[in-house]
Amino acid sequence: MSGRRTRITEDEINELVSKLQSLLPEARRPAAGRASAAKLLKETCNYIKSLNREVDGLSDRLSGLIATMDSNSAEAEILRSFLRS
To answer: Model-level pTM greater than 0.70?
Structure first.
């Protein structure tokens, strides 16, 4: 990696902020126009944290489901095949 830094223009930053805003769910975006970059970054971090919590919850539910299944059942095999994919 080179020791030189690449400068990002204000237009490039605005474009990146717009792209990031488009990735957030509609319900989390401010109703009136564009949010500041700082607010958008904070919302993005909160959204990522909520997705992580959701994944953790789903993983816990899946683990509980697998624990209650007969390990040789067809359902258990289907779940194992999904997990391997």
So the answer is: no
Query: How far is residue 51's CA from residue 28's CA, in Å, rounded to a whole number?
Result: 13
Look up tokens 């909160």; give the residue: 46
Encode pLDDT of 7-48 as tens digits.
889 899 889 888 888 888 875 566 646 668 888 889 899 999
Q: What residue numbers bound the domain in which 52 lies?
A: 37-85
Residue 78, token pair as written in the block: 């289907």
Return the number of other C-beta atoms located less than 10 Å from residue 13's C-beta. Answer: 11
Residue 1 pLDDT > 80: no
The token duo for 30 is: 């401010």
Residue 68 lies in a domain: yes
* Most distant pair of Cα atoms in the chain: their distance: 59
Residue 73 lies in a domain: yes
